Amino acid sequence: MRTVLLAAAIAGAAVAPAHAGRTCEETMMTAVSLGHALDAGQRLRETLDATGSDVALIARQGQDLSKYQLKYSHAGLAWRAAPDQPWRVYELLNDCGTADSALWVDGLGNFFLDDPFSYDALVMVPPPAIAQRLTLALADTAGLHRLHGRRYNMVAYPFSNKYQNSNQWVLEVLAYASASEGRVRTRDEAQEWLKTAGYQPTEMRVGTLTRLGGRMFKANVAFDDHPGTLRYAGRINVVTVDSMQAFLGQRQGWTMQEVKK
């Protein structure tokens, strides 16, 4: 099950597949890969069921980021309306080959359908008070879109609202749920709260040619939102699953579990 939350994005999504910072290469779905995805979704469902929570942050290893000492590349928010209801994954995906994004609702099996590097997953469960606020947020479509930036950038700077990537949207929704009520309603307010709360993005060292190549040849990669002092030194700060894991691991009440194939 996959539906788009933003009606205006349906046309774009229909002509190009949606990805989370992946290439646009078309790959034929095989019975084997479909089976792996469904098995991974089932393992994830069993883990989520066992948490006793109806909402969690989940992540997958969509691509190999080991050269940056990172494992999980893409995060979403898993939610079920009631214990007898199916889990759904709320996530931001890039309209392949473009600089646009849309918010999607997926089933757990769909979360692993785009040929991931592995079928491992990470589950991060919030404490009850934050879980309650996340539940309210995920039920509020207008609120989710207030925290959504349509212009996609795989390496979006965490403290700018010029662009947004998949993990950044999840983190800003978490900021809304974690802040005192009424403090965070916009992306600017979410980013300010994250700074105050001590969130530290992942810093990647990226050479000049890589930066220029990304800007010239990929619609979904840009560096012009990064502060010049960092950009010209090749220090690219981004929201990664690892940085979210480190941040949430320091906050009271969060529990984390890996789901291995």
Question: Helix and strand layout, with pairings?
Answer:
Elements: E1 2-4, H1 10-15, E2 18-19, H2 31-51, E3 55-60, E4 74-79, E5 88-95, E6 101-106, E7 121-125, H3 128-138, H4 141-146, H5 166-178, H6 187-197, E8 202-205, H7 208-217, H8 228-231, E9 235-238, H9 241-249, E10 255-259
Antiparallel strand pairs: 1-6, 2-5, 3-4, 3-7, 4-5, 5-6, 7-10, 8-9
Helix pairs in contact: 3-5, 5-6
Q: What does this molecule look like?
A:
Residues 1-20 form the signal peptide. Pfam families: DUF2145. The strands form two sheets. Strands 1, 2, 3, 4, 5, 6, 7 and 10 form an eight-stranded antiparallel β-sheet that branches. It is globular and about 50 Å long. The chain is α+β, with helices and mostly antiparallel strands and 261 residues long. It has a single domain, classed as Alpha-Beta Complex (endopeptidase fold (from Nostoc punctiforme)). The two termini are 22 Å apart. The chain has nine helices and ten strands. 35% of the residues lie in helices and 19% in strands.
Q: Which keywords apply here?
A:
35% helix, signal, globular, DUF2145 domain-containing protein, two-stranded antiparallel ribbon, 10 strands, single chain, alpha+beta, 261 residues, UCP028477, endopeptidase fold (from Nostoc punctiforme)
